[in-house]
Design brief:
Helices cover about 35% and strands about 20% of the residues. With about 200 residues, it is α/β, with parallel strands linked by helices. The longest helix is centred in the first third of the chain and has 17 residues.
Length: about 200
């Protein structure tokens, strides 16, 4: 992992998740995303019973998903020792996490831009090995940061911003992009219309 673990301490979470004037995500944000993700995957006939949330932080995704379907089993993975110990998550990184099972849905929101190129490529390959259904990915690119689409007051500046092309090349080995941040695992053999594939 490129950034030191102590960086993701109590002060970090207070700033980006606790303070209303700098908060990056809220529970409501996760509720909206969870409803979209589960609805679209239901439309594509991709069952979701097991979820792995990489960089799970406060666990808002768990709450949002289980409001919709309480049968979903959730595994939270968090690089921050502070947060993992406080909330009982698996302490690991996207590049190193090595589960002994596969997941229907892997969530990786605002994580990969913390990794240098080598670790990020390793993380994508790693995710591809245990994602059997779909990946929900949100990651800032260089163009996102410079184009004005990002609210910089509520978005952390990252030192590892890459091009969309860089990501697409590596994701394409394992996933088919279907829009809205969703990528269907190639191994799932989901039948997709041509225009569903972005």
């Amino acid at each position: 992992m490129s950034d030191p673990a102590h960086r993701f301490d109590a002060a970090y979470y207070r700033h980006w998740y606790g303070k209303a004037d700098t908060r990056a995500f809220t529970k409501t944000d996760k509720d909206v995303r969870a409803a979209f993700v589960l609805s679209y995957l239901r439309h594509l006939k991709v069952p979701v019973r097991s979820v792995c949330d990489l960089g799970c932080g406060l666990g808002h995704w768990r709450e949002a998903l289980q409001k919709i379907d309480s049968r979903i089993t959730y595994t939270g993975v968090e690089y921050s020792a502070f947060m993992a110990q406080r909330l009982g998550w698996v302490e690991s990184s996207a590049a190193d996490y090595a589960p002994k099972r596969k997941f229907d849905l892997v969530i990786c929101q605002a994580v990969l831009q913390h990794l240098d190129d080598k670790d990020c490529a390793r993380a994508i390959k790693n995710i591809g090995s245990y994602c059997r259904g779909a990946l929900y990915l949100e990651v800032l690119t260089k163009a996102d940061w410079t184009s004005g689409v990002v609210d910089k007051k509520h978005t952390e500046k990252h030192s590892h911003l890459r091009s969309a092309t860089w990501y697409k090349k590596r994701l394409g080995e394992f996933f088919v992009p279907v829009g809205g941040g969703l990528f269907v695992a190639r191994s799932a053999n989901v039948p997709l219309f041509e225009l569903e594939q972005m």
